[in-house]
Description:
The chain is α/β, with parallel strands linked by helices.
Amino acid sequence: RYTLCPAGWARWSFRLMEAVSSGSIPVLLSDYYVRPFAPWVPWDRFSLRLPESAVSRIDPILRGLPPRRAASLSESVGSSEPGLDYRSMARWIIEALTTRVTRPVG
């Protein structure tokens, strides 16, 4: 039901994409995790974010998650609404880059 997604070498990890594409709830375990495509992807609807200091309490945290919240996360990660899988990555990247080029930051 859950996939731990600690940060990798970068500020996000391929584990996140693997969790989503398998229909598992991603548990982002990092103090500096950057959720890719955040302006377009509603991460809070289908993932959990925990600080690194919570690593020793992951089991009780996940077991203590209210059943309604866990069910909601599961339903959302399995829905097509997030539109985040390996096949749609090119579309997300193109949209993000197009937005960046047409509306530069700063």
